[in-house]
Amino acid sequence: MQLIEERLRSLMLQSLAGDAAAYRIFLDELTTHLRSYLRRRLAALPDEVEDLLQELLLAVHNKRHTYGPTQPLTPWVQAIARYKLVDLLRRRSRRDVLTDPLDEDDQVFATTANDATEAQYDVAKLLRGLPDRQRLPILYVKIEGASVTDTAIRTGMSESAVKVGVHRGLKALAERIRSIE
Amino acid sequence: MKTEDLVSLLSTGAEAVDLRLTSRRWLLALAGGALIAFLLTAGLLKLNPALWHETSKPMFWVRESYCAVLGILGFTAVARLARPGFRLGLAPVGIAIAVIAMWVLAVMTLAAASPQDRAPLILGHTAGACPFLIALVAAPLLAALLAVMRSLAPTRLRWAGAASGFAAGSIGALVYTLHCPELAPPFIGIWYLIGMLIPTGIGAWLGPSLLRW
Fold this sequence. Notes:
The structure holds 2 protein chains of 2 kinds.
Chain A: H1 2-16, H2 20-41, H3 49-62, H4 73-98, H5 103-109, H6 123-128, H7 132-143, H8 148-155, H9 159-178
Helix pairs in contact in A: 1-2, 2-3, 3-4, 3-9, 7-8, 7-9, 8-9
Chain B: H1 3-11, H2 21-45, H3 51-54, H4 58-81, H5 91-112, H6 115-123, H7 130-151, H8 157-176, H9 185-210
Helix pairs in contact in B: 2-7, 2-8, 4-5, 4-8, 5-9, 7-8, 7-9, 8-9
């Protein structure tokens, strides 16, 4: 436990300093931990696991400026995970009141692909719904891996507009995922 | 999209994060909110003409420190509640101690006064208006603190809203003292507190819907 904390914390600090490779390792390892946490917590709702996992990763990304460098990392992640989990269950309970009361019987027949890494909603599809000033910077910088400068030239936007577009676009994405249910 | 693709998306081209941005936002919210509160006090309510004269009275400084201490403690709670994984800490205990200290001072003042002087010590000249004026002066501060809170990641939304309201209320009260002619501890102990609790209640009410993320 202590080892995980130390490792993830140092990766996080490197990420915050701008090390994208460290950030990738950080998110990969975080994904593994969060997936097994969510599988335990959402044992009755296995189809929600990957959805919530992706929502959590976006939340960690969008809110990483709230991590204090002197603060232990585990409680920070834990608090975000718990918050999003409670939010999901609250959303579901509100929806379930209005819909099929036999929901629970369904699960007997539900196929639960344990190793599915595909979420039910499609982030790629949600991404296509964003306005161009957010969609293109995310497409070029984050998916194709182009530099901010090249993206600015290709889109005719300023470099700071490209950065703002990525930032706002990812926030808008999280917002859309949240309002799906 | 697969989760591994999302991880790749998020990490590709990730840049350094400016961690001082949050403190700058808080500072701006406090300074901007306090400035508008001051303009409301000076423009709409007028500054107390006897202000300079009153600075020589010890009770003037007791009242100022009381509001300032509550403001600092309230803001400490705000800053902690805005980030995941922080405990609330001892700020609420400090707030309770300050409020009780003011009440003790109020009871001592009332006990020392003759019976016919007690009602004026409690009601002053402005008891009816004071809480609402404090809430009014605190409004821009509340709006500014909630706006910054929205850019962060509070996980206990009602508490985060309430703390923002309390911090706004006590800093607003501090600004309001520039107008307020009342110095009696019973007055401060009752009406100032109610004035601070109005934005606290509004913040607690707005928190869950306004601060969701």
